[in-house]
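Objective 1b of the project was to move from sequence-level analysis to a structural picture of ligand recognition. The entry below was assembled by the postdoctoral researcher (A.K.) and checked by the PI before modelling. It contains the amino acid sequence of the target and the SMILES of the bound compound, adenosine-5'-triphosphate.
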Amino acid sequence: MSILFIVNPKAGNGKALKVSDKIQEKMKILKKDYEIAYTKGPEDAITIAREASNSFNKIVSVGGDGTLNEVVNGIAGSRSILGVIPAGTGNDFAKTIYPSLNIDDILKTIIDGEVKSIDIGKCNNKYFINIASAGIDAEIAHRVQRVKKLLPGKLAYLNTLLKTLVTYKGIDFNIKLDDVSFRANTLLITASNGKFYGGGMIPTPDADIKDGYFDVCHIKNLSKIKIIALLYKFLKGTHTQIKEVTIFKTKRLSIQANKNFIVNIDGETLETNEANFEINKEFINILLPRNK
Ligand SMILES: Nc1ncnc2c1ncn2[C@@H]1O[C@H](COP(=O)(O)OP(=O)(O)OP(=O)(O)O)[C@@H](O)[C@H]1O
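Corresponding predicted holo structure:
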């Protein structure tokens, strides 16, 4: 019953390193068989998780949503059990599965939690555990990554948010779900497995990681004033009654445009002119708190 902790030393501006000290302390006290691997750069967690998936019973991501996404892509298709220790800046997926982000409680789950099968999304060839999206949010996420090299984090985000808000003209998407197809000038569209993204926003309040479906939030492009009003509701998940917002449940989603657009997958971005999403029901075994 050995456990591998995959720690991203850069996650949460070094928070993951502190959490890793705590993990080691606890494991020694409990005399548990464990190992720790530190990632050396982007995508390293995929390789580490893939190579470890035959020899470790539990593989635990210690970092943010980006590290978790990589660990999921590494263990996909194996029998390893996934553990999630949030130690990033956003930790959006952890908010879906844990009632609180207290590290001591979460360590109890890693050692003695209940193993359950949950759904995993796939976008083109990449798996995701939480939320994928396209539209204004993905454009902002993509641009922030570039601006971050020039400005500090929060300033980079605010600067990009304002600039994108002013210039965004909507994207004309051809959208195909299980039962319906339509074309719409779109503010944003999500394929959600988890509930939270972007540091706690709630696009699909009823998303369920065990129901075998994506919850899709589609929002038609809006005037700038309406976007600002929507943002407040979107943060709390109370936007679903607005007339330009539609929520669907679907197993498949396809979005296509005449020009390239950005897709945000668990917080990482890629550029394409067609994104095909499918849900893989009960695809990964994960450790969840016993009362969940
Ligand atoms: N040693 C490393 N040096 C630099 N980057 C790394 C290293 N190891 C992993 N990474 C990359 O760091 C990125 C960010 O990690 P992660 O998303 O887990 O943390 P975060 O950004 O602090 O948290 P969150 O996504 O929850 O806001 C990932 O895309 C990952 O590929």
